[in-house]
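Researcher: Sequence recovery benchmark, item below. Answer with residues only.
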């Protein structure tokens, strides 16, 4: 009876040793995903530092890009973006900023940004190159008719009509378009800017507005007659 009990105990120890050995030889992935080409084969010796496989969860793709430092303060986690793969430029994917570096790279003067994009159709792969587009609010400038821009010894200026009096206002041209010119100047929305008869206008002199945006203005008292547009 004693020999039988001893044999049972030895069998149990052997079973535990076998289970422990099997457990040590079993590798469980921490995530579910797609396994690529295995760098090892049956019979190879492996250790805790051996790379056995690479597993990709391709439901989302994590991309890194670098934004110029001038936009660093405008980017925040959760901001939306568009991304297209260099290999598939016709396909545009929606993404979201997931992380920002805490400093500007001194060599490139850029900020590292990470974003996640959905890969519902499994058309993207890790390691792909992407073109990223983000939209930021631009600066606002008054727009005036190109005919309103005049030039003097001090540079560009326009004539404003405030309370029926001509007022010369210096401007800095930001951008010329076909129908308008964007300027940096202390102009308020709706202010009257002279576009016709500018050579007859004098600073501080009364002005009679003949037309505003092409429409006839009410008959004014006698004074210099000009056409104008809203600022």
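Model:
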């Amino acid at each position: 009876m004693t020999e039988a009990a001893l044999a049972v105990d030895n069998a149990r120890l052997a079973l535990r040793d076998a289970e422990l050995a099997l457990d040590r030889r079993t590798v469980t992935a921490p995530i579910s995903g797609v396994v690529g080409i295995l760098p090892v084969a049956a019979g190879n010796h492996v250790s805790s530092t051996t790379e056995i496989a690479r597993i990709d969860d391709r439901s989302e793709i994590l991309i890194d890009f670098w934004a110029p430092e001038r936009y660093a303060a405008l980017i925040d986690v959760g901001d939306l973006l568009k991304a297209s793969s260099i290999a598939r430029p016709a396909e545009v994917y929606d993404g979201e900023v997931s992380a920002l570096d805490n400093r500007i790279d001194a060599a490139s003067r850029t900020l590292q940004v990470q974003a996640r994009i959905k890969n519902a159709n499994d058309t993207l792969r890790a390691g792909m190159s992407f073109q990223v587009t983000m939209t930021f609010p631009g600066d606002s400038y008054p727009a005036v008719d190109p005919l309103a821009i005049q030039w003097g010894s001090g540079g560009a200026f326009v004539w404003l009509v405030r309370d029926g009096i001509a007022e010369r206002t210096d401007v800095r041209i930001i951008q010329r378009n076909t129908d308008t010119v964007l300027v940096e100047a202390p102009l308020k929305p709706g202010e009257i800017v002279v576009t016709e008869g500018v050579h007859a206008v004098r600073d501080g002199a009364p002005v009679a507005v003949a037309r505003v945006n092409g429409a006839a203005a009410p008959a004014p008292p006698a004074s210099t007659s000009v056409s104008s547009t809203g600022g």
